[in-house]
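User: Can you fold this complex?
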Amino acid sequence: MNDQVMQNFLIKRAFLTPDRPAIHFAGITYTFSEAYNRAHTIAGQLAGCGLKKGQYAGALLSNHVDTVFVYLACHLLGVKAVILNNRLTAAEIAWQMKDSQSAFLITESRFSSKYRELEETLPNITIINKEVLFESSVSPPLIVDEINLNEVCTIMYTSGTTGHPKGVLQTYGNHWWSAIGSALNLGLTEEDCWLCTVPLFHISGYSILMRSIIYGMKMVVLESFDEKEAINIIRNEKVTIMSVVSTMLTRMEEKLKEDKLPAQFRCMLLGGGPASKALLEKCQAKQIPVYQTYGMTETSSQIVTLSPEYSFSKLGSAGKALFPSQLKIVRTNGEKASPTEAGEILVKGPNVTKGYLNKKEETKSKIVDGWLSTGDIGYLDEEGFLYVLDRRSDLIISGGENVYPAEIEGILASHPAISDAGVIGLKDEQWGEVPAAFIVKRKEINEVDILQFCQQKLAKYKIPKKVMFIEEIPRNAAKKILRRELRKLLE
Amino acid sequence: MNDQVMQNFLIKRAFLTPDRPAIHFAGITYTFSEAYNRAHTIAGQLAGCGLKKGQYAGALLSNHVDTVFVYLACHLLGVKAVILNNRLTAAEIAWQMKDSQSAFLITESRFSSKYRELEETLPNITIINKEVLFESSVSPPLIVDEINLNEVCTIMYTSGTTGHPKGVLQTYGNHWWSAIGSALNLGLTEEDCWLCTVPLFHISGYSILMRSIIYGMKMVVLESFDEKEAINIIRNEKVTIMSVVSTMLTRMEEKLKEDKLPAQFRCMLLGGGPASKALLEKCQAKQIPVYQTYGMTETSSQIVTLSPEYSFSKLGSAGKALFPSQLKIVRTNGEKASPTEAGEILVKGPNVTKGYLNKKEETKSKIVDGWLSTGDIGYLDEEGFLYVLDRRSDLIISGGENVYPAEIEGILASHPAISDAGVIGLKDEQWGEVPAAFIVKRKEINEVDILQFCQQKLAKYKIPKKVMFIEEIPRNAAKKILRRELRKLLE
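Assistant: Here's the predicted assembly.
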């Protein structure tokens, strides 16, 4: 419990530093005062549609400054926003809307085919199209001046490898402490500016917005990731920090050629799995400071981070838990694992979710005494640095040996002729399961070359027994590999 | 309530950044790992004396690195430290020891005359002399690995202008949120280093220690303030931030002559009342960035801060409440005052004390719905900047008009021939009370000159009716004027 009252974050920020830049989008910069005024107007328009404090409302929106204002309007109203991944099908959206009992869906014309389909399956839901909303009359909104850190701010559904997705409750406190933990690790200066090219509907993007409000920091929003545009905007808008995943970082590093990022740029926050040594070396050569992280929707973004000074001595590590948080590795019987012994990763801290929406039993079994079972497998080295091995559900067990796909993928991706790789388990008469690899080529390479390369790097049982070449590794919005898609390809 | 569990701050910090410099004292720098080891050893020695989690222990110590280690040892043991002002008489110390029911007093030889007297009046108290303690055997201490932010960390007695002092409960959460509020305002970089020349037994000094642990920042401790030594150590130890009161800042500014502080120095955090315009102008000329603040023991240091960019446009203001905190001005009937209308200052936030030790009734009357009545008088301007007028108990009421001593002192101190000034109320047949001024001269000046100067600056009823010249204005450890001492001089 984090039962602490504070002033509404946006109101406080607009009061403290009204004239500081808050958001830059499509060539226009908005101050905190302007952001507050826009959010206040939208809050009035949403109130006119019937939205009230405590209600759930779906938000199906693109990466746009309007989306930021809509999210902030929800803060002002005390509306719990169910943040929808805009790549979902109408059926998947319907499922999340029903599960969260959202009576409203705030969306925009570009998703009209989806919400029209939705209107048929869920006729009782009020669809609010932002283009219409922004032209509507403004009711005087009932503004929530004080919030309790224990109140739910947002709901984000986790993709889940099996079964239906679960709605992760993210409180104001979860977002607050996540921002504070990050600031204590990365520092904070008045010159800071965070580039958001990741989806705002994902915690990686939403957490940048929360940091912007809490820190009084400018955020730059792009509609989507493009390496050339990202590099240009880092230069033009004096960006100091950017959130990336490996594939984005690879593309930026390649695009930079002989250039360097400007001196003010101080942090490339890398999520979604460890980077290859080859990529880290290239980044070091171009003085790109890479902070590797581990986090998830349930921890409101990063909870474990590795500073650049450890990039090489602790290659592949995600680092240590941020100041407000803790982590431990446990055996299947619940005992604490010894150093270097792999087990399930458990995390605890004020940024950790209090549970899943309307899922008391699942919450109880996943969170015990404040410790969340992540389902991920990892170990701590002698100095307490975390190494994430894999998602438990993706674990390949081959002849009694544990095989972690991410490890093999890391090796494959380090080959100069391979640009991306994905590994899954393949049923096998003799061994139960064996690894199978999907390869995206950068240059010409064949199966024999790849297997020879693996033989130098991997124990025999870890070497893929099947190699397939494809155009692209299927990944979700968070750039995590969709192994079930790979499995379909195999079939 | 701030019922949040976290790892013990020192344990976490020593784990995260063991090799970073933590404390510099008398030419020696200790890393966080070394600080942890020293504190752990002392915790073992204190455990050997019988100290246990949850107990209260008095600490009568000087500004010294050992004091830092003793305080941190108390954190490790979960002992609540009653931090004693070492300028107190034995009788005053005895009162605080009895009030807090402390069974132990951790002290050092230089205070032997005080603690010997104490041994006679309170024979049941165990006196622990640090010089003896540090030579004693080490018992394995029972370390508190996790703390709850709601637990009491320290007790500090407020001086109080009337009656007995009250023990202010400062929780781990109070200290934590104070540090976070400050970081969100001042920023935080890996190069930061905070100079502590104020007493460690005062919240201004103790809060620097807490920031050091929470931020992973070096603190430099001096035994006492000396302007030459302070300037030298800012240069040699690359200090970036220093806590001062006006008199210290005046002396440093004068000492600097034509020099400037090095470029890395970024913040002079000024507490204990507003600075004169003359001082601010001189500081500006020497590029000393002054952040004016308002705070008290009950708020675990600053709660309101003014950035340098507002130094002149908001001259005399203490600024706005830090991000996690709120403030309001109320009339005597409890209603919110209008902008520019003076009233009592009320503050709220997670850094505000939960009350006074063993004083339920006083706590209830001082803290209502989380709002602490400070007893101080001030107003907010149209933009919400706070102007502190005076301590309520020092208010002079003259012919029905309110006269605020601090205002007159500010005017007097701005005269080039006056180095310091103190004002109190003097009983008067006609007006009830009239202001009387005590002056410390810088150059030759007489009463007529001073009154002429005041006539240009102050309404008639505010002009001192009596002017006395003295050698020094009596101030407490926090450099607040001891008006009752001035009153004695008058008698």
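The two ends of chain B are 47 Å apart (CA to CA). The longest strand of chain B covers residues 418-428.
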